[in-house]
């Protein structure tokens, strides 16, 4: 008994205790629900057997039904637009801002800090704000675009089926911008100024310094940012109920919102689980990329 | 001799801080010039201004006869070896070496051949496919040198390149850098805070303090004829002893005010009663018998490195270096003798050297 106590206060026991707590937490609150969700996608679930675990096995019938829904491919397309549009926009603008704030000018880091506001705000609030900005007749965005002569007619961002998914994507780009900028800024700050000076003396111009020093040195940071971006975008939910509710006619519906609709509006929990298992495969892929791109970080 | 690097009336301000004050300096083609001084004296700023990494506020900077004010670093054709080496961590040694050539548009095969040649002269042939993190400090230093050499630049700029190496490697690299300089017939500017590096490596030494050039000259000139108390104290190790003194009423004897007014005959007459500082190098003081002694100290510490023995006074103002060992112990009173021709005199107020006929 004494040995166990001393091991916990001084030795390996303490390490095992810490790891154990984390493992219990992860298994109970992430592992079990995940497995439960996967199991549910292979079962027949209705309101009567919702409270029991033993339900009729359904094989792949849930998957077949989900894929054969008329809106399935539309939602896949929208999800792709939303995910790649958001990641692309967040990354390009985030990188540009990160580079900009690396320049030495007064209050650079203060102003950069203010950008975190977008990250701190709840998604529903951001959604409401962008809902107003993007509004057709009285929206600020339309007023600006018309003012500078870019468009003549009012753009109905939220109700035009060809624009609705882009409306949510624009809002999400703004929402994720600060996160991208911050991670990329950290990566940029990690590159020694000496390297740029050496490259400059070696004859590299601005573009060459960016492509031969900055980009290769940022490789693991960029990989991590893109992978995390994919994960965060796939779990972005708040903006959809706040801006378009997936409409009009599913034209801005995406997989994560669709899964919620199946489960909590149509109460078909099996289909909701099925859609989220399909997403899980993508997230798993992104996680692998993330782990792979940060594998050097341990060495520092 | 033509000047490869020329600075005329160069000033540099950082906001209100005046980092370089009216610097005039001409560096001959093929010469090895060391910039020395305590940290913050402006030596690195001066070097970085030559490289173009800092812009000068006023004055003219010429490299190989061309005015370089406002020319970006990549067009100045100078190579720099950084204190941190600044090797590109994501490139192999070969690509580190050939980076500048590839930027100029040299083909991969030609650049590789050049890199191999330079690797041979710097002893890196076995390491071409390693990354910088897989190299020792000395090897990284060589890569940094090789990266400079491969470009065949108009001038080599060194910014304290040896300060991250251990003592024995530093001595070895000192010789290697100097012999490389001679072999390439290069023009080198070498910044260091270590006066021994400056003395052993350079043809000319420029001593700086607070953004001003205090003195320039060949290493032994600075040692033998320091222009002022600062240079006298900076050049030479251990540092020169300074004793507040005065000239007697007849103008023929130097009185050590701090050592109970003991005195020594001067080589020649000086203005009577003038307040001066006597500078005596530790290696020109020796322990002497009562009959020979010029002045006396109370021994504070005795340190020996085996080859040299350092005897310091209790007030830490006077140090004697001798190659013989000693029986002296702390608190012993000991007489010291100095050849009056070896005494440097500085004005007590201006600290400038008092020029005598003897030099």
Automatic annotation (TrEMBL), chain A:
Q: What UniProt keywords apply to this chain's record, in alphabetical order?
A: Cell membrane, Membrane, Transmembrane, Transmembrane helix, Transport
Q: Which GO terms describe its cellular component?
A: plasma membrane
Lineage top rank: taxon: Bacteria
Gene Ontology terms describing biological process: transmembrane transport
Q: Enumerate the transmembrane spans.
A: 16-39, 80-101, 113-133, 163-189, 210-232, 272-292
Q: What is its main location?
A: membrane
What family is this protein classified in? Belongs to the binding-protein-dependent transport system permease family.
Q: What is this protein called?
A: Sugar ABC transporter permease
TrEMBL record, chain B:
Q: Which GO terms describe its cellular component?
A: ATP-binding cassette (ABC) transporter complex, substrate-binding subunit-containing
Tell me where in this chain the ABC transporter domain is found: 5-235
Q: Which domain of life is it from?
A: Bacteria
Keywords, ordered alphabetically = ATP-binding, Nucleotide-binding, Transport
Q: Would the keyword Transport be found if you checked this record's keyword annotation? A: yes
- Subcellular localization(s) per the UniProt record: Cell inner membrane
Membrane topology is: Peripheral membrane protein
Gene Ontology annotations of biological process type: carbohydrate transport
Coiled-coil regions, chain positions? none
Give a GO molecular function annotation for the protein: ATP binding
One short Pfam name that applies is: ABC_tran
> SMART domains under this entry?
AAA
What family is it from?
Belongs to the ABC transporter superfamily.
Family annotation (NCBIfam families): PRK11650.1
- Identification of the protein by name: ABC transporter ATP-binding protein
This protein's species is: Devosia pacifica
Q: What is the lineage of its organism?
A: Bacteria, Pseudomonadati, Pseudomonadota, Alphaproteobacteria, Hyphomicrobiales
């Amino acid at each position: 008994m004494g040995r166990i106590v001393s091991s916990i206060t001084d030795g390996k026991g303490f390490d095992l205790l810490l790891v154990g707590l984390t493992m219990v937490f992860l298994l109970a609150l992430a592992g079990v629900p995940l497995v439960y969700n996967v199991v549910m996608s292979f079962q027949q679930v209705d309101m009567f057997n919702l409270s029991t675990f033993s339900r009729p096995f359904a094989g792949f019938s849930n998957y077949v039904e989900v894929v054969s829904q008329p809106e399935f491919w539309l939602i896949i397309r929208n999800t792709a637009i939303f995910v790649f549009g958001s990641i692309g926009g967040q990354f390009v603008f985030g990188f540009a801002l990160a580079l900009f704030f690396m320049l030495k000018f007064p209050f650079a880091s203060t102003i950069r800090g203010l950008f975190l506001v977008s990250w701190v705000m709840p998604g529903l609030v951001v959604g409401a704000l962008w809902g107003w900005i993007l509004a057709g007749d009285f929206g600020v965005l339309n007023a600006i675009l018309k003012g500078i002569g870019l468009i003549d007619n009012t753009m109905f961002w939220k109700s035009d089926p060809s624009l609705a998914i882009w409306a949510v994507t624009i809002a999400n780009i703004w929402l994720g911008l600060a996160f991208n900028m911050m991670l990329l800024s950290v990566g940029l700050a990690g590159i020694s100024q000496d390297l740029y000076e050496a490259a400059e003396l070696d004859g590299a111009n601005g573009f060459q310094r960016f492509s031969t020093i900055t980009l290769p040195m940022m490789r693991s940071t960029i990989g991590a940012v893109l992978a995390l971006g994919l994960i965060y975008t796939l779990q972005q939910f708040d903006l959809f109920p706040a801006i378009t509710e997936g409409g009009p006619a599913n034209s801005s519906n995406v997989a994560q919102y669709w899964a919620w609709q199946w489960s909590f509006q149509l109460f078909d929990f099996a289909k909701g689980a099925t859609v989220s298992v399909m997403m899980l495969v993508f997230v798993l892929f992104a996680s692998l990329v993330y782990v792979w791109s940060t594998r050097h970080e341990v060495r520092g | 001799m033509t000047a490869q690097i020329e600075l005329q009336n160069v000033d540099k301000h950082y906001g209100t801080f005046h980092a370089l004050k009216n610097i005039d300096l001409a560096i001959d083609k093929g010469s090895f010039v060391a910039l020395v001084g305590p940290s913050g004296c402006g030596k690195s700023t001066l070097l970085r201004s030559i490289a173009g990494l800092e812009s000068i506020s006023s004055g003219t900077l010429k490299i190989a006869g061309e005015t370089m004010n406002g020319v970006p670093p990549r067009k100045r054709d100078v190579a720099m070896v950084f204190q941190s080496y600044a090797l590109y961590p994501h490139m192999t040694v070969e690509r580190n070496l050939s980076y500048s050539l590839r930027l100029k548009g040299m083909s991969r095969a030609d650049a590789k051949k050049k890199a191999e040649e330079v690797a041979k002269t710097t002893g890196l042939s076995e390491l071409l496919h390693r990354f910088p993190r897989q190299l020792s400090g000395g090897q990284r230093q060589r890569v940094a040198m090789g990266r400079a050499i491969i470009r065949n630049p108009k001038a080599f700029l060194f910014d304290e390149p040896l300060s991250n190496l251990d003592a024995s490697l530093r001595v070895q690299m000192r010789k290697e850098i100097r012999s490389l300089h001679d072999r390439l017939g290069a023009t080198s500017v070498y910044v260091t805070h270590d006066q021994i590096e400056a003395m052993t490596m350079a043809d000319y030494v420029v001593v700086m303090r607070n953004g001003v050039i205090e003195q320039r000259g060949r290493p032994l000139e600075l040692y033998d004829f320091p222009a002022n108390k600062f240079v006298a104290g900076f050049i030479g190790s251990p540092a020169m002893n300074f004793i507040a003194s005065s000239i007697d009423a007849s103008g023929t004897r130097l009185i050590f005010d701090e050592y109970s007014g003991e005195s020594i005959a001067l080589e020649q007459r000086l203005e009577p009663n003038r307040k001066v500082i006597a500078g005596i190098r530790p290696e020109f003081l020796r322990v002497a018998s009562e009959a020979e002694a010029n002045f006396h100290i109370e021994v504070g510490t005795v340190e020996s490195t085996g080859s040299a023995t350092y005897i310091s006074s209790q007030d830490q103002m006077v140090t004697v270096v001798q190659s013989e060992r000693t029986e002296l112990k702390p608190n012993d009173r000991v007489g010291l003798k100095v050849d009056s021709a070896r005494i440097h005199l500085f004005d007590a107020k201006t600290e400038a050297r008092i020029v005598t006929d003897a030099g």
